[in-house]
Amino acid sequence: MTKKIAVLPGDGIGPEIVAEALKVLDCLKQDFGLEIETEQALIGGAAYDVKGTPLPEETLALAKAADSVLLGAVGGPKWEPLDYSVRPERGLLGIRAELELFANLRPAILYPQLVAASTLKPEVVSGLDIMIIRELTGGIYFGRPRGRRINENGEREGFNTLIYNESEIRRIAHVAFQIAQKRNRKLCSVDKANVLECTELWREIVVEVGCEYPDVELSHMYVDNASMQLVRAPKQFDVMLTDNMFGDILSDCAAMLTGSIGMLPSASLDKNGKGMYEPIHGSAPDIAGRSIANPIATVLSLAMLLRYSFGDAGSADRIEKAVITALDAGYRTADIYSEGMTKVGTAEMGDAIVSAL
Amino acid sequence: MTKKIAVLPGDGIGPEIVAEALKVLDCLKQDFGLEIETEQALIGGAAYDVKGTPLPEETLALAKAADSVLLGAVGGPKWEPLDYSVRPERGLLGIRAELELFANLRPAILYPQLVAASTLKPEVVSGLDIMIIRELTGGIYFGRPRGRRINENGEREGFNTLIYNESEIRRIAHVAFQIAQKRNRKLCSVDKANVLECTELWREIVVEVGCEYPDVELSHMYVDNASMQLVRAPKQFDVMLTDNMFGDILSDCAAMLTGSIGMLPSASLDKNGKGMYEPIHGSAPDIAGRSIANPIATVLSLAMLLRYSFGDAGSADRIEKAVITALDAGYRTADIYSEGMTKVGTAEMGDAIVSAL
Ligand SMILES: CC(C)[C@H](C(=O)O)[C@@H](O)C(=O)O
Ligand SMILES: CC(C)[C@H](C(=O)O)[C@@H](O)C(=O)O
């Protein structure tokens, strides 16, 4: 049966990089008979400009009806003067919440071809392969009460609520333990249990869930130490489990260890494995429209989509191998360029991957 | 007039490293006539064990009466089973709050002698000199309501409140701008204004305060991007301004860039410049009692104390130069050891610094 992908290019470099992923998908459809249809819709600033909201009803309806979602990126300085409630980011947060995509999988893998692109010394990072599992629909991102008010002294005051309940922590912990079981059976849960009661509960529940996975070695780390250890000795980590806010910070740090935020895909899954897939990087407004963005993170997001949501490991493998072939052939977009390589633009990188499929 | 330092060694390696700083102070008193007296008191787990509380009244009274405070470190696994309200960390948070030490200055400096100890490539970090200004008595660390409860579904729930008002943001922003003025007039304020209303206010107020410092170039960065940029190109930063939680995470990451969390001092100041000084690193229970801890961060914290709270730049310079002389002579504790250097223990490093004074 034909499956459907809702394609949401978004803002900045979003449309450029999504176009390359679709080229890859088209090739797979033509040459390998994949039965997949795509339909595009607006999200983020692009949606606000046309519809006055970053998450129009028809976009949400399409995403809900589709079997899975491929997203580019949202946001940019153009929309920063807007009120908080209609900023592009609200589109992204809104779709995460509406689709209940609570499990965000963020791999940080250093491709051997890119060791030179990392700012860390080769002996510290080569072979790096971390999977960060970030809780995505709870915590301080969504907690209430939140907002701004005038306090009793007549001053402006801003407030947000970090909040998690048992079942929210439990379900993301299960995801993390199950992924750890398929990898090296080592899970490090990150919290700030020495200061924040909310994350004290986090630790408690993770320990409880851990009893069901005696084959996984569970450890705990305070978030400040984790951000330090990521720089000191990142290879000590295999799977990391974090809340929404800490995951936002640590996954960007981990991604950068690989020298290439432009390389890394991500998956955001609901409890049935339906998911939204997007590059870890943002909309990069500074380079938008210049055809120099790296499409690999988005192409690999498509691979993750096929693997996790459509159970098509064959096609996912094929894409991942094609990316490696393109890297082996020396093709590099500007963000991952190092001496002696062939510098290419967005579309040329897409072409190189397609011809390696 | 004789000035008084309250000395709070704390837990783990705290007593060992503080002892070395006091050796340095004694030498300065004897050889250069500094009129300073010290008095020790318990804090953290050490205080809990004797007094049943991590911040005994007499410790607080001493700290309040003294002209400034030198602290080692608190915490350790021994006290982790304890209830949150009496853990060693509460002693540290309590004294910060009671003394209203809202401005935490955390330099991340890479000593040229230690380039080899950094996990980052020399071209990325050599010459690194960042000053992180962290708000220390507000935000989610202290916000109320906080705690745990059973929700309407009968589930456990944990919650904390991130909250800042105008004057809290204003006073830390002034500190940051004034420090930026004395450095390279570049200030980067870190927030998550695209998601959290509280940090949206943070950004707004920082912009307002910035109008009073037209000579300082102000920029803003989302916290996830900041953690990435610290790894990608840390030398782009000069002074960074953060809230309490983000500062906790980013300052540890920045410290590690220098290859040596054992090297970095910090100052926590109140509005009159009275302060508490402590190494950035923790109590390192794994190496406590083994006489291998690096005392330099604590020795440099004493230097900061003399400079900022006692206005004695001469003695501060003398200490800082002595540390450099010891490094130039090749002395290295285990944490900063690299091939060809002379590995020394805690007391030997202290002696090397004293003899270079
Ligand atoms: C754009 C922003 C709302 C988002 C987040 O903070 O979650 C982004 O940084 C991410 O990590 O996906
Ligand atoms: C020990 C802990 C409470 C403390 C903090 O989180 O502030 C420490 O990590 C620090 O950075 O000084």
Automatic annotation (TrEMBL), chains A, B:
Binding of NAD(+), residues: 76-89, 282-294
EC number, UniProt record: 1.1.1.85
Residues spanning the signal sequence: none
Occurrences of domain Isopropylmalate dehydrogenase-like (ranges): 4-353
Superkingdom field: Bacteria
UniProt key word Transmembrane helix: no
Cofactor(s) the protein requires to work: Mg(2+); Mn(2+)
Keywords linked to the UniProt accession: Amino-acid biosynthesis, Branched-chain amino acid biosynthesis, Cytoplasm, Leucine biosynthesis, Magnesium, Manganese, Metal-binding, NAD, Oxidoreductase
Major localization listed first in the record, in broad terms: cytoplasm
Catalytic activity reported: (2R,3S)-3-isopropylmalate + NAD(+) = 4-methyl-2-oxopentanoate + CO2 + NADH
Cofactor note: Binds 1 Mg(2+) or Mn(2+) ion per subunit.
Top class in the EC scheme: oxidoreductase
Binding site for substrate: 96, 106, 134, 224
Gene Ontology MF terms in the entry: 3-isopropylmalate dehydrogenase activity; magnesium ion binding; NAD binding
Manganese among keywords: yes
A Pfam family that the UniProt record links to this protein: Iso_dh
Site (Important for catalysis): 141, 192
Residues annotated as binding Mg(2+): 224, 248, 252
Compartments reported by the entry: Cytoplasm
Assembly information from the UniProt record: Homodimer.
Functional description taken from the UniProt entry: Catalyzes the oxidation of 3-carboxy-2-hydroxy-4-methylpentanoate (3-isopropylmalate) to 3-carboxy-4-methyl-2-oxopentanoate. The product decarboxylates to 4-methyl-2 oxopentanoate.
NCBIfam families to which the protein is assigned, alphabetical: leuB
Stated family: Belongs to the isocitrate and isopropylmalate dehydrogenases family. LeuB type 1 subfamily.
Protein name, per record: 3-isopropylmalate dehydrogenase
Taxonomic classification: Bacteria, Pseudomonadati, Pseudomonadota, Gammaproteobacteria, Methylococcales
